[in-house]
Amino acid sequence: MKSLILATALALLAGGALAADGDAVYRTHYPNLQGTPTPLATLRGKPAVVNFWARWCAPCRKEIPELNALADQAGDRLSVVGIAIEDHSANAIDFAKAYEIAYPVAFAGPGDGIALMKVLGNELGGLPFTVVLDADGKVIYRKTGLLKPEDLAEATAGLL
To answer: How many helices and strands, by DSSP H and E, does the chain display?
Structure first.
């Protein structure tokens, strides 16, 4: 009986994650690196690349130049947003400066950030984690682990 209840709960959670799509992102309010609360609902209406990272994550560092280039190339046609999974906002600020992150970054902290990643399909909370939303808020791409240039190009090809 316990197994049936657990299996049903897991199925409902998994189905909810797929059904939620970008709504989970749009309902989120995280402070930006200046400390101003930033509703991610501002992403609604155009495609977005949402990248979760932490300063201790070596693959996260490797992705930054590609994400910077995409943000520059896309202009107003697509949003690129980083979500820092850090214990302290000062760590995220220092990292963003050191790696010259040119796109907006929100500070989530580990608890809230990992919870959002799980809702978006990253059940283990691994980093880096990237989702691409279309203009309607549907998650059209998910990747846990290093996002290679060809992955990013493929994920955003029809959006630019």
So the answer is: 6, 7
**How far is CA 32 from each of CA 25, 83, 84, 105, 128, rounded to the nearest angstrom?**
15, 9, 10, 6, 19
Tell whether 27 is covered by a domain.
Answer: yes
User: Total domain count for the chain?
Assistant: 1
The answer to whether residue 57 scores a pLDDT higher than 50 is: yes
11 assigned to some structural domain: no
CATH number at residue 31: 3.40.30.10
Say what angle helices 109-119 and 2-20 make with each other, to 10 degrees: 90
Give the pLDDT confidence score for residue 74 in this predicted structure: 96
Question: How far, in Å, CA of 46 to CA of 98, rounded?
Answer: 29
Q: Which two tokens stand for residue 93?
A: 């600020």
Structural domain includes residue 44 = yes
- Pairing between strand 48-53 and 37-39? unpaired
> For 5-56, what is each residue's pLDDT tens digit?
333 333 333 444 443 478 999 999 999 999 999 899 999 999 999 999 999 9
Whole-prediction pTM value? Answer: 0.86
Note whether residue 9 is domain-resident.
no
